[in-house]
Specification:
The complex is a heterotrimer. Chain A has 3 domains: 214 residues, 2-enoyl-CoA Hydratase, Chain A, domain 1 (Alpha-Beta Complex); 226 residues, 2-enoyl-CoA Hydratase, Chain A, domain 1; 44 residues. Chain A has 20 helices and 15 strands. In chain A, a hairpin with a 2-residue loop joins strand 2 and strand 3. In chain A, helix 17 runs antiparallel to helix 18. The mean pLDDT of chain A is 95. By secondary structure, chain B is mainly beta. Chain B has 2 domains: 83 residues, Glycoprotein, Type 4 Pilin (2-Layer Sandwich); 68 residues, OB fold (Dihydrolipoamide Acetyltransferase, E2P) (Beta Barrel). Chain B contains 1 helix and 16 strands. In chain B, a hairpin with a 2-residue loop joins strand 3 and strand 4. The longest helix of chain B has 6 residues. The mean pLDDT of chain B is 86. By secondary structure, chain C is an alpha+beta fold. Chain C folds into 4 domains: 100 residues, Rossmann fold (3-Layer(aba) Sandwich); 69 residues, ATP-grasp fold, A domain (Dna Ligase, domain 1); 237 residues, 2-Layer Sandwich (D-amino Acid Aminotransferase, Chain A, domain 1), CATH 3.30.470; 38 residues, no CATH class. In chain C, 36% of the residues lie in helices and 25% in strands. In chain C, helix 5 packs antiparallel against helix 6 and helix 8 crosses helix 9. The mean pLDDT of chain C is 94. The chains are: A alpha/beta, B mainly beta, C alpha+beta. The interface between A and B is medium-sized, with 14 and 17 residues. Strand 1 of chain A pairs parallel with strand 24 of chain C.
């Protein structure tokens, strides 16, 4: 496979401008992440220390194998919700290695309001267990939560994708033979009590760990019974009498060590066979990604330059290099895994949509995982293209992509606007994992486009009603729309709402895809076949 | 979480920094690039550390790993993570022999209430008689040795249980 | 010619005796306590008979059971080895009374030499020099008074035994009563005879002993001397022959004195006459050991004789044709006693299980051990595991050979003194042959292992931890690409 010949000029003024802007964006992202991870009220940190508890991230670090990666998911979930009261949506999820096994980790963040579950917390945990289900990843739950955040119960309790979904997913995981371990460090109250109960293994720390459907205050209110936390649902009760937990631990450190030893007992289930070759680092320096990503959402760039900084040896076998050139398709290896890449190099035309659909079929036949690199403004619009069937060609691509049996991975490299998001495996299309770069923007259309459209609609309305055209009014509509869009189009809003599995530093893309490609091989390929293609 | 090992009375941390292209381990402040064909603990084997090759024999005996390396023998203290974690900072009910020896006399009986420092039994080791005392207050739950019998280092001598108030 | 010999012993000496029995075509019968059921001497012997006792050592001290075992096995002789009943006159007499051959001296000679007072008087009568001493013949209080009269420092030990058991140096009258009492209680326990013995302690003495062999008819030869000055806790750990820096004339006088004593006693079989050699060249009779010594292999190396074979031939009724002029001392031999102990913790005994044993090999290297992989090392028996013996033309070459052999010996599963012995063999004073029985204590600081360099310490720790199941899995059983990615946080 030949190396991509880069035409990037790192000495150019444009490269420098892009580079500096990208670095600043990424630095801002990391600062946001640091704050979400570590900035906590002193009293919460002191309270945990007084209880002899480790911080949630200290627990995780002790649980993970040393010298191995941990891919944290949705580190900035809820960053624009609740006035920032629930950083990271009060939970930590990710994929790591414990006792030599790939596992999904879910940890309550007890350093935020006792680890209470906000609506976004539920969404994050449900997504975490969806990932476990889709990829058949064993789960380790690090439980320490005060329970649902009661003032917002209507947004976290009743609906299909709300709290109950956690336990539904846990049950389905078990049915699939995917193992779960709960380490109970703090309270598991009400629904939360089912997390250890639905796990195959549960370890509970004496003195601080407790599991009950209702805590002492609720019990007193309900029946008048006065009991202590330990009597009601402590370590000895559950490990000696009720059997709700399996292993008593004298300390958090011991619970983590027992947990590691439990995971070490788990069978290593064979992975789905896939083509894997020797690993080679990219030939081109991934740091140059900063110089490629434009500082302007409207500016295009050659996605081959991005591919050259992600894949093994910067080698790429391009499929149909001369046809439908606004969609770059081809094979490459990433951390040794054979992948099929679909990357946007402009608006999707009929030929690019047909090429994409065809290439997806080839990858499905070949058992090759698909990686979508999005920078898409949509499918081409206008009479000519409608007449050529741009809608039905786009539909073919969506059909082929939706019905794929191979795992799919999406990286939001820049813009994702309109129906192009669908064809390129947006969130609704069950990519196993979907990551965004900090410069990413997403919406049904771009901000300026929307502002212009709405200003145009307003102008027409005023004309229809015979009212005077007030330029300042039109300008107001334009500016208000632009402002609202800019906020909601941003990657931070998208990740806050869990429309992705997290913003990542572009330089982390290769590792994130490596870890997730490996995770995906734990599940068998999906069923073959498609629906009806409109020809 | 680093693994703790003791040698010559001091404890060292061993942690894994990386595995590729070679195993990269940290021993306290020293970084060590290790090349070893995984031997499953068999002896002898060759281990190359920072370019220096060593011929190694090793054998596990309880909490000790005996190592013969480059013509010298060493005894390294090691516990599996679960055992090491279980023993961190907890007053044990178990009174174990710190050295091999022989029981001369029992000074306490089953069910006795003992205070910290009370004699429990007299042992002889290294031709010396030593009185083993209670590390804390408790009740004698069980006695695991008899007079005139020998015991190994680490043998459980007496088991205490907490005094019930 | 003997047909079947029962070895009333265990461990390396039992294995040693069985080896010569096999060479001579004589059947061997081993005895063992249940705790020793897997020991090599049991497997090596043609027959093995279990002895029962509450305490393992008691089994090897049970005369009635030993004689019954000899009858069961059809043995015609008993070899006592060293330790246990080797110097017990009552046992020797019982063996002979049972119609069996006791491979050792006559019971009355054992009794004579076993009694410190009688032995000294006998030695004095033969013109041998002795250090002032006294033995308890009444109460302990009377003994304390008599001993104080000799003057200090004093060496106190069991009247009935040897081997350093219950031995101590007393430097003042104040500490004498308590030390005497301790020595007495230990003597009672180890030798079933609580009497104690005191003699003037000579500072910086050397321990020189002479191997003799007599036919019981007054014909006695010596097989030259051994130097056994390197001792810890009054027990020898390194022996050699010839003794370094010992003028030939003095050596000959000492050997002649030993022969004279043994001949006067009409000594039969192998024995050792021990002397204290003062820095001024004066020597004093210490005691006579009426048995085969632990350190007999050094004599075997320098004389080329098999002492056990000599013992067995004599016991089998052959005439002793060995003449003094036939015996030459060739080259230099060292013996190291490999003990299960922690030299860095005052030689505290260690226990464990032999996990790996790779004895050194090569010309002039001999390894006498009763060990096998899997053998438990318990506190029930003596801490000596094996002996390493080297032989070379000169002392320096023999010491170099020993150093190499100690480094080559791999014995894992129990703490031992091999490295400590290696440090002695690197010590300039030792290599210069400037020895005395306080050497180990005097040079204690120089004999401590040097602190490990960080690199060596790391190598040891890594070798240890990579051999464990848990850590090696952690290091080697990491999935890909995670192992290649390594530590990474996004």
């Amino acid at each position: 496979m030949a190396r991509i010949q880069s035409s990037l000029n790192p000495g150019s003024a444009e490269f420098r401008r892009n580079y500096l802007a990208s670095q600043a964006r990424v630095a801002h992202f990391h600062a946001q992440q640091d704050a979400a991870r570590h900035v906590r009220p002193a009293r919460d940190v002191e309270r945990l220390a007084k209880q002899g508890k480790l911080l949630p991230r200290e627990r995780l670090e002790r649980l993970l194998d040393p010298g191995t990666p941990f891919l944290e998911l949705s580190s900035l979930a809820a960053n624009m919700a609740y006035g920032g009261e629930s950083p990271g949506a009060s939970s930590i999820t990710g994929i790591g290695v414990v006792s030599g096994r790939e596992v999904m980790l879910h940890a309550d963040d007890s350093s935020i309001k006792g680890g209470a579950w906000y609506p976004h917390t539920i969404k994050k945990i449900v997504r975490c267990l969806d990932i476990a289900l889709e990829n058949r990843l064993p789960v380790v739950h690090l439980c320490d939560s005060a329970g649902g955040f009661l003032p917002l119960q209507s947004a976290l309790f009743p609906d299909k994708q709300m709290a109950g979904r956690i336990f539904r997913n846990q049950s389905l995981l078990s049915k699939l033979g995917v193992k779960q371990l709960s380490l109970v460090f703090g309270h598991c109250t009400a629904g939360g009590a089912y997390i250890p109960a639905l796990s195959d293994y549960a370890v509970i720390v004496r003195g601080t760990g407790a599991v009950f459907l209702a805590g002492p205050p609720l019990v007193k209110a309900a029946t008048g019974e006065i009991v202590t936390v330990d009597e009601l649902g402590g370590c000895d009760l559950h490990t000696q009498i009720s059997g709700s937990c399996d292993y008593p631990a004298a300390s958090e450190v011991e619970a983590l060590a027992i947990g590691r030893e439990i995971v070490a007992q788990w069978e290593r289930t064979p992975k789905t066979p896939c083509q894997r070759d020797a690993v080679e680092a990219p030939y081109y320096d991934p740091d140059e990604l900063h110089g490629i990503i434009p500082d302007d959402i409207k500016r295009g760039f050659d996605m081959r330059e991005v591919i050259a900084r992600l894949v093994d040896g910067s080698r790429f076998h391009e499929y149909q290099p001369a046809y439908g050139t606004t969609l770059v398709c081809g094979y490459a290896n990433l951390w040794g895994y054979k992948i099929g890449i679909l990357a946007n190099n402009g608006v999707l035309f009929n030929d690019s949509a047909l090429k994409g659909a065809h290439f997806i079929e080839l990858c499905n036949q070949n058992g090759t995982p698909l990686v979508f690199l999005q920078n898409i403004t949509g499918y081409m619009v206008g009479r000519e293209y409608e007449a050529r069937g741009i809608t039905k060609d786009g539909a073919k691509m969506i059909m082929a992509q939706s019905c794929s049996r191979v795992p799919k991975f999406t990286v939001m490299c820049h813009g994702s606007f309109g129906a192009g998001n669908y064809g390129m495996c947006g969130r609704a299309f069950d990519a196993r994992f979907l990551f965004s770069w900090p410069n990413h923007q997403i919406g049904v259309m771009g901000g300026e486009q929307a502002a212009r459209t709405l200003a145009e609609v307003k102008t027409r309305q005023l004309e229809r009603e015979g009212l005077a055209l007030d330029p300042s009014l039109i300008e107001g509509v334009y500016q208000d729309t632009l402002k609202a869009y800019q906020e909601q189009l941003s990657a931070y809003y998208a990740t806050s709402e869990l429309w992705d599995d997290g913003i990542i530093d572009p330089l982390d893309t290769r590792n994130a895809l490596g870890v997730t490609l490996s995770a995906a091989q734990n599940a068998p390929l999906g069923d073959e076949g498609y629906g009806v293609f409109r020809f | 979480m680093p693994t703790l090992l003791t040698l010559d009375g001091t404890t060292s941390e061993v942690d894994i920094i990386g595995r590729r292209p070679q195993l990269n381990l940290r021993v306290d402040d020293l970084h060590c690039r290790v090349e070893e064909l995984p031997s499953g603990g068999a002896s002898p084997c060759d281990i190359t550390i920072n370019g220096q090759r060593h011929r190694v024999w090793r054998a596990r005996e309880g909490d000790r790993i005996h190592v013969h390396l480059d013509g010298r023998s060493y005894s390294v203290g090691y516990q599996e993570a679960v055992r090491a974690a279980a023993q961190s900072g907890h007053a044990s009910n178990e009174i174990r022999a710190e050295m091999p020896g022989m029981v001369v006399e029992l000074r306490a009986a089953l069910g006795d209430d003992v205070a910290a420092g009370d004699p429990l039994l007299v042992i002889e080791s290294m031709k010396m008689q030593i009185t083993v005392t209670a590390p804390r207050a408790g009740v004698i739950e069980s006695i695991h040795v008899e007079p005139n019998t020998s015991f190994q280092k680490g043998t459980l001598l007496v088991l205490l249980r907490a005094v019930v108030e | 010619m003997l047909k079947n010999v029962l070895i009333a012993n265990r461990g390396e000496i039992a294995c040693r005796i069985i080896r010569t029995l096999k060479e001579m075509g004589i059947a061997s019968t081993a005895v063992y306590h249940f705790a020793d059921r897997g020991a090599p001497h049991v497997a090596a012997a043609d027959h093995a008979i279990e002895l029962t006792a509450l305490v393992p050592t008691a089994a090897y001290l049970d005369t009635a059971q030993l004689l019954a075992a000899a009858r069961t096995a059809g043995a015609d002789a008993i070899h006592p080895g060293y330790g246990f009943l080797a110097e017990n006159a009552v046992f020797a007499a019982a063996v002979e009374a049972a119609g069996l051959v006791f491979i050792g001296p006559q019971p009355e000679v054992i009794r004579l030499m076993g009694d410190k007072i009688l032995a000294r008087e006998f030695a004095v009568a033969q013109g041998l020099p002795v250090a002032p001493s006294c033995q308890q013949d009444g109460t302990l209080a009377e003994f304390v008074a008599q001993a104080s009269a000799i003057g200090f420092p004093l060496l106190i030990k069991a009247a009935a035994g040897g081997g350093g058991k219950g031995m101590s140096i007393v430097r003042s009258a104040e500490e004498l009563p308590a030390r005497a009492s301790t020595a007495s209680s230990e003597a009672l326990r180890y030798f079933a005879d609580g009497r104690v013995y005191a003699e003037r302690y000579i500072e910086r003495p050397r321990h020189i002993e002479v191997q003799i062999f007599g036919d019981g008819q007054g014909h006695v030869v010596h097989l030259f001397e051994r130097e056994c000055s390197v001792q810890r806790r009054f027990q020898k750990i390194i022996e050699e022959s010839p003794a370094p820096n010992l003028p030939v004339a003095l050596r000959d006088r000492i050997c002649a004195a030993a022969v004279q004593l043994a001949a006067a006693a009409g000594y039969r079989n192998a024995g050792t006459v021990e002397f204290i050699l003062a820095p001024d060249g004066e020597f004093y009779f210490l005691e006579m050991n009426t048995r085969l010594q632990v350190e007999h292999p050094v004599t075997e190396f320098v004389t080329g004789l098999d002492l056990v074979e000599l013992q067995l031939r004599l016991a089998g009724g052959e005439a002793c044709t060995l003449q003094q002029r036939d015996i030459a001392q060739t080259g230099h031999a060292f013996e190291c006693r490999i003990c299960a102990e922690q030299p860095e913790h005052d030689f505290r005994p260690a226990t464990g299980r032999v996990a790996i044993l790779e004895p050194p090999q090569g010309p002039g290297v001999r390894f006498d051990g009763g060990l096998r992989v899997g053998l438990p090392v318990t506190a029930a028996f003596d801490s000596m595991l094996a002996k390493l013996i080297t032989h070379a033309p000169t002392r320096a070459e023999s010491a170099a050979r020993m150093r190499a052999a100690l480094a080559e010996l791999v014995l894992l599963g129990v703490d031992h003194n091999v490295d400590y012995l290696g440090r002695i063999f690197a010590h300039p004073e030792f290599l210069a042959g400037r020895l005395h029985t306080g050497f180990v204590v005097e040079q204690a600081e120089q004999l401590v292992a040097e602190p490990l360099t960080p690199a060596v310490r790391a190598a040891v720790l890594l070798a240890a931890v990579l051999g464990t199941d848990e850590f090696s899995r952690l290091a080697y059983e990491c999935p890909e690409p995670h192992a290649s990615i390594g530590h990474w946080r996004n």
